[in-house]
Amino acid sequence: MAPTVSEPETTIIDGKAFAASLTEAIAAEVAGLSAAGKRAPGLAVVLVGEDPASQVYVRNKGRQTIAAGMRSFEHRLPADTAETDLIALVRRLNADPAVDGILVQLPLPAHINTNAVIDAIDPAKDVDGFHVVNAGRLAAGLDALVPCTPLGCLLMLKHVLGDLSGLRAVVVGRSNIVGKPMAQLLLQENCTVTIAHSHTRDLAEECRQADILIAAVGRPGLIKGDWIKPGATVIDVGINRAAGPDGTSRLVGDVDYDAALGVAGHITPVPGGVGPMTIACLLRNTLTAAKARPDSGF
Ligand code: NDP
Question: Is 55 a catalytic residue?
Fold first, then answer.
């Protein structure tokens, strides 16, 4: 998993290789449980409707869950499913002893109240970490199931930098699924944390202070090369479709990647950076949830 060096100073963080080694370690632990006669941890994924991107995510999650030696339970419901029926399914999964983790794929169709559905998930099985109990526990510095994307970012940061204590971190974006939990995790690591958002007065100047810069916005190339402190570690969470030079569409992040090369000390590419870590952390959370169950016998 040796990082590849692109320009004189910038090391590219290989999220794909890092995710593969994390998944391998999880699979080895699951194999150890099975060798000891324990049951396999189980992850239930619920998909409502036919959103093409969500279908790809759900398929990948199921495939990787099985590859790690866990049980995968997929529930595909039609787009016109009533909110009450979806919540009834979540409650059945809460009560199912074979299910350790429950993930309801977002976004849900507009007629369903997403918060009501997340609220129905047993916080002990909330492997996405979106339930208010887990968000509150994270904010209070207690053990919690942490949202997978910021957890993946933190694991990569610790791998690259070791101790994060005292570093200045700037998180651009304040969503409940990425920005806010990312800031909480960095605070727990004793970083000095700034959260920037669409009302931040001088975003460029805030970014220039960052030893660790996390971009979780959803605006292609928003972060310019001269917004980056030389040597900073840049984690690009953004996934955006943009037209390439030949007119075809390609995936890009929130950071102007080419301009960042040679300025940043480390950077995650898009694709191949944060993305692969998200599913690996979902498997990690499922194993964590399984081991934490008082009746698990693990
Ligand atoms: P949201 O749309 O929920 O949040 C975006 C945040 O960016 C908001 O807090 C918003 O501020 C802020 N913002 C918007 N425009 C600006 C601006 N011009 N300057 C500063 N801040 C701005 O997005 P998510 O957090 O869900 O996702 C962010 C990105 O990460 C997306 O590209 C998404 O696709 C990607 N993503 C990638 C994942 C992965 O696995 N790699 C997983 C999840 C997301 P305000 O609050 O003021 O509106």
Answer: no
Q: Which of 100, 126, 128, 236 is catalytic?
A: 128
How far is it, in rounded angstroms, from Cα 41 to Cα 289?
Answer: 9
Structural domain harbouring 159 = 147-276
Ligand 1 pocket, residue 176 CB under 6 Å: no
Q: Which of 105, 125, 126, 184 is catalytic?
A: 105
Query: Looking at the structure, do residues 101 and 157 belong to the same domain, yes or no?
Result: no
For residues 173 and 270, state if they share a domain. yes
127 and 181 assigned to the same domain: no
Per-residue pLDDT tens listing for the chain (298 residues): 556 655 558 999 999 999 999 999 999 999 999 999 999 999 999 999 999 999 999 999 999 999 999 999 999 999 999 999 999 999 999 999 999 999 999 999 999 999 999 999 999 999 999 999 999 999 999 999 999 999 999 999 999 999 999 999 999 999 999 999 999 999 999 999 999 999 999 999 999 999 999 999 999 999 999 999 999 999 999 999 998 888 899 999 999 999 999 999 999 999 999 999 999 999 999 999 999 988 777 7
71-77 and 233-236 strand pairing: unpaired
User: What CATH number is given to the structural domain containing 69?
Assistant: 3.40.50.10860
Residue 80 annotated as catalytic: no
Q: Are residues 178 and 202 in the same domain?
A: yes
Output the six-digit token pair for 102.
Answer: 């429950």
Q: Using most ligand atoms within 8 A of CB, pick from 61, 171, 197 the residue to mutate for ligand 1.
A: 197
- What domain count does the chain have? 2
* pTM for the whole structure: 0.96
Ligand 1 neighbourhood includes 61 CB (under 6 angstroms): no
Burial of 107-118, coded b for 16+ CB within 10 Å and e otherwise, reads: ebbeebeeeebb
